[in-house]
Write a structure and sequence with these properties.
Elements: E1 2-5, H1 7-13, H2 22-36, E2 41-45, H3 49-57, H4 65-80, E3 81-84, H5 113-121, E4 127-130, H6 140-145, E5 150-152, H7 155-164
Length: 165
């Protein structure tokens, strides 16, 4: 089994998201621990776009679980990670050939398109773990229609955030 981890999951696991409840922080940490213990493979892109984003938000030598997750990736990426090829379109950093061609996704956050492209490019179409980015919910139907699974691991927090809008 393979999984993709949105950056907000690792940031929440480190306790650095005001939006996340303590239950969400714990859930995110638990999911990262499962990956590190070998229960599933982590999927990353071959251009290290996701890894670079992790590195901008984490410290590989930190003590928090998100930081330890980054250190684990750097130490184990050859054995514990699946890499998939994604192809930038016209040299743009947030446009990929592997992103589904669906008008319903035109307004999806360009910064998060890399996760969808990676899921779409992987033969197993692994789930993307998502913590507290409530805007992803607006695209659930389009994701399903395109064979992309998003696992909202902090559903109560997302619901609360949606109500606050």
């Amino acid at each position: 089994m393979a999984v993709i981890v949105d950056t907000n999951v690792v940031v929440v696991a480190n306790g650095r998201s005001e939006q996340a409840s303590s239950d969400c922080v714990e859930t995110c940490g638990d999911r990262l621990e499962e990956i590190m213990q070998g229960e599933m493979k982590l999927v990353l892109d071959n251009r290290w776009i996701i890894l670079r984003e992790y590195m901008q938000n984490l410290r590989s030598n930190g003590a928090d679980v998100g930081d330890r997750f980054l250190g684990w990736i750097l130490a184990n990426r050859d054995e514990r990670c699946n890499l998939v090829s994604i192809t930038p379109v016209d040299g743009l950093e947030n446009a990929f050939e592997e992103f589904p061609d669906d008008p319903a996704l035109n307004d999806f956050d360009p910064d998060d398109r890399k996760f969808i492209a990676v899921a779409y490019a992987h033969p197993e179409r692994p789930a993307i773990l998502q913590a507290v980015d409530s805007q992803w919910r607006d695209f659930r139907d389009a994701f399903r229609r395109n064979g992309v699974t998003v696992e909202f691991i902090c559903e109560d927090d997302i619901q609360r955030l949606r109500e606050d809008i």
